[in-house]
Amino acid sequence: MQTIKITTSQNIDIDYEIAGLGERILARLIDLAIFFLIFVLGIFIASITELFRNSGAGAVILLTIYAVLFVFYDLIFEVFMNGQSIGKRIMKIKVISLDGAQPRFGQYLLRWLFRIVDFLIVEPGVIALVVAAVSEKPQRIGDMVAGTMLIRTSPRTQMDHIVFMPVYDGYQPVFKQAGQLSDKDVELIHEIISAYIKTGNNVVVFNMALRVKEHLNISPPDGMNDMLFLQTIIKDYNHLSAQIAAL
């Protein structure tokens, strides 16, 4: 499985598995199957509804709603479902920005607009498949223009590799106050870092770092961002706890 290393805004390197063509195709087929079922359901409703049998206006309204949903489906779901359509969620893949963050609305919009090039010109979907097959990521044209790509939702980099940094001999804790924390406090910090990795939500990291700083009455040195601060706190806590256990 092809992978990509992404450096987040918090200077953390995370390895992601790139979504394969097979997964992307299956996700699209699932989405199309959902729309086929909706179409069949709509026909059934129209056939048993008196209003639709007696007036063509009802059928026009139903088809218009269906067409609008079909056209805007990917844009709406990717914006409100964190980069996933129903098919992508089932296949456990999602759209992310090339910097590892959740794409902005403008990126989703560009990606959606270029569906016209990827899927409607020549044979439906042929351009998207060819470009994705030969590109490095792989990306279709819409992804290249929008600065996005599809990945598997589970990062290859495990939490333990990020949170539990090895402590070498002679290590000097940066924050000796970390020893005042409890196991429960450190477990909560782990959960916050895990939440950040899954969602890219910087707010939870900022809030946790602020709480720890206030609780321990410490200020990190210049240049140390909130994520690095929390990682250092955990590293210091592990080192100090190991020293106490060795006594």
Summary of the model, kept short:
With 247 residues, the protein is mainly alpha-helical. The protein has two domains: 3-152, no CATH class; 159-246, no CATH class.
Topology at a glance:
Blueprint: E1 3-7, E2 13-17, H1 21-48, H2 50-54, H3 56-80, H4 86-91, E3 93-97, H5 105-113, H6 115-120, H7 126-134, H8 141-146, E4 148-152, H9 159-163, H10 183-199, H11 202-216, H12 226-246
Antiparallel strand pairs: 1-2, 3-4
Helix pairs in contact: 1-3, 3-5, 10-11, 10-12, 11-12
Structural write-up:
This protein has 247 residues and is mainly alpha-helical. It has two domains: 3-152, no CATH class; 159-246, no CATH class. It contains twelve helices and four strands; from the N terminus they run ββααααβααααβαααα. The chain has helices spanning 21-48, 50-54, 56-80, 86-91, 105-113, 115-120, 126-134, 141-146, 159-163, 183-199, 202-216, 226-246, and strands at residues 3-7, 13-17, 93-97, 148-152. The chain has a two-stranded antiparallel sheet with strand order 1-2. The chain has a two-stranded antiparallel ribbon with strand order 3-4. Helix 10 packs antiparallel against helix 12 (226-246).
Coarse structural class: mainly alpha
| Amount of helix | 55-70%
Largest sheet: 2 strands, antiparallel
Q: Determine the mean pLDDT.
A: 79
Strand content: 5-15%
> Care to count the β-strands?
4
Which geometry do the CA atoms define?
elongated
Instruction: Return the string of H and E elements.
Output: EEHHHHEHHHHEHHHH
Total individual domains: 2
User: What's the gyration radius in Å?
Assistant: 24 Å
* Strand order in the sheet with the most strands: 1-2
Helix segment tally: 12
Distance between the termini: 46 Å
- The stretches of 5 or more residues where confidence is low (pLDDT under 50) are none
